[in-house]
Amino acid sequence: xxxxxSRLIVCTVALLLAAAPVSRGQPSKAGSQPPTRIVxxxxxxxxxxxxxxxxxxxxxxxxxDTFPPEVQxxxxxxxxxxxxxxxxxxxRPDLVVVYAxxxxxxxxxxxxxxxxxxxxxxxxAAVLETIRKLGDATGHSAxxxxxxxxxxxxxxxxxARVKGRTRPRTLLVLGRQPxxxxxxxxxGGAGFMHEMxxxxxxxxxxxxxxxxxxxxxxxxxxxxxxxVILEIRAAGLMDPAAREERQSWASLGxxxxxxxxxxxxxxxxxxxxxxxxxxxxxxxxxxxxxxEAFR
Amino acid sequence: MGTPAMTNTGIAxxxxxxxxxxxxxxxxxxxxxxxxxxxxxxxxxxxxxxLIGSTxxxxxxxxxxSIPFADNVDAQIFFIARLPRVLAGALVGxxxxxxxxxxxxxxxxxLATPFTLGVSAGSSLGxxxxxxxxxxxxxxxxxxxxxxxxxGAAVAASIVYWLATRxxxxxxxxxxLLAGVTLNSFFSALIMFVQYLADFAQIYGAFRWLMGDLDxxxxxxxxxxxxxVAVASVxxxxxxxxxxxxxxxxDAAAARGVDVAHAQRLAFIGASVATSAxxxxxxxxxxxxIIVPHIVRLMVGVDHRVVLPASALxxxxxxxxxxxxxxxxxxxxxxxxxxTAIIGGPFFLWLLxxxx
Lengths: 295, 356
Known about the structure:
Radius of gyration of chain B: 20 Å
Helix content of chain B: over 70%
Order of helices and strands of chain A: HHEEHEHEHEHHEEHEEHEHHEH
Largest sheet of chain B: none
Order of helices and strands of chain B: HHHHHHHHHHHHHHH
Oligomer: heterodimer
Structural class of chain B: mainly alpha
Distance between the termini of chain A: 34 Å
Largest interface: A-B, 34 and 37 residues
Number of helices of chain A: 12
Shape of chain B: globular
Distance between the termini of chain B: 27 Å
C-alpha cells in the first residue's frame, strides 16, 4: 500500500523540515514518578520506547507509526503538523513526546500540566543521546544505556569491517518524481542519513554541502559523477517497479555508477528513521557498498 | 492565481506607449522591426545560455565525436542538462507570454494572465492527483504527471468553453472572467483537498512541482509538448487583427465586421492549449504571462500584430535568462518561478514609474 509505505520517508522529510542543528532530547520537567501513560507523536521515539522496555506505557501514537507491530493496535492522534490535542488529552497521558518545533503543542500540554519530551533532530550521536535521555525520563535508564551501547558497537563493527577499503563516491537518493530524474532530493553533508552512509564506508558526493538535503539538477548530477547510487525507498512503495526505476538513470550514461550498473534500490522503513534500527540501516548500506567485505 | 480585477478600461486605452516615433511607420515595417529585434534577442540568449552553467565545460570536447557520448561528460552536460533546459525555457516562455497577450485582449483586462481562467488550476489538480495517488502509466515520452496535468487542463478548459459558448452567441467578458475565476477557486479547493490526503513526501513533491521547473532532462518531454504549441501558434497567427478590435469591446468589434463569437473561441482555445502545454512541461511558472506582454506593449505599442509575435519572442528570451540566473549565477539553485517574480516584478514597476 503506497500511501502507508511512503510514510516513513515521510517522517524523514518531516524531520528534515523540522531540523534543528543541535540534537537534544529533553523532558520539560524532571518528574519524580516515571510516566505510565505516554503518547508519542514521533515514530522514531516510539520505536525507542519499545526498545527500552517502555512500550507498555504507550497509550497513543502518531498517524505515521508502523513499527513495532504493537503500534497497530494503539490509537492514532495526528502527527507533526496536525496533532489532535483533544484526542491526546482524552487519553490522559502523563508524558507526550513531541518534535521540538511543535512549540504550540508544548505550551498547550504544559498548561494542562502534562510533561513533554521534545525530540530534536540530528545525527547518529543525537539518536543515542535521545535514547539515553528517554531512559532517564521513563525510568528505564539501564535498558536505554544498554541499547545505546549496543547500537554504537554495531556501528563501530561496521566501520571496522569497511576500514581501509576504497570508499566509493556515493549518491544517496531520498526521493524523486517517478520515471524521471526531476524534483530529486538527496542527502547533503549533514544529518543522520549522511552519517550512516559515512559509517558504512561510502563517501557522500554532497559531503561538502552543509544542509541535510540537496536538490540536484541534471547538470549537478553529471558533475558530481557518483560511483554508486543508492536509492532509498520506504517498504512496499515500489518493490516491483524498482527495476524500471533504475532505467530512469540510463540517460546520464557518463555517471560512473550508471555505466557500471552500480545503482541499488534499498527498500525498508528502517532506512529512513533516526530510531533504534539505525545500526541495521548502516549494515544494509555497508553490504550494498562493500559486498566483498561481508562474504 | 489570477486576480479578478473588474476594470472596464480596455488595454488599448489603458497603457500608453513609449515608442511614439515608431508608431508613424507602416504596420508591416513595425512588425518586421519588432520581430527581428526581439528575435535576435531571443536567439542571442538561447545561444549564450547553454554555454554558461555551474560547471565550466569545453565546447571543443562537447562536439568531439571521437569521444563516445557515454564517456563524454561535457557533451552530456551540454545535451542533457543544458540544451533541453534552454529549449524548454524558450518554449514555455513564449507560450505563456503569447497566451498572456491573448487572454488580456480577450478579457479586456490588463490583469489577466494565462492562469486566470482556471486552465492552470485544472493542470495543477491533474498533477497533484498523479503525484498523490502515484500514477504510473506513461504514454510515449509523456510522464504520468504531464499526462494528468494535460487532462486536468482539458477538463477545466472544456467547462469554461461550454459555459462561454452555450448560447452560441458572443459571450460578455465579465461572464467569461467570472466563470474562469470561479472555476479557478473551485479547482484550488480541490487541490487543497488532494494535498490533504497526501503524505508528507508527496506534499513535498507536489509543492516543488507547483514552483515550476525547467530541468526536463532530455528532449522527449519537449517533443511531446511541441504539437500542442504548434496548434496554438497556428491559432494565434489568425488572431491579431481581431484581437485589436476585440479589445475595443464586443459591439465595436462586431460593428467593424469581426465575428466576435468565432474570434473569442479561437482566442480561448489557442491560449488554453498554449498554457496547458507550458504547464505540463514545466509546471505553473508565474509572472511571465502578465509581465512580458506589458513590457512589450510599453516598448512597441498596443497593436496586436506587433505585440503578439514580439511577446512570444521576448517571453522566450526572458524565461531562458531567468533560468540562467537561477541555475548558474546564484550560489544555490532556486526555483525559476522565484527568479521570474523577483526580476519581473520590480522591472515592471520601474517601467511604470519611469513613464509616469
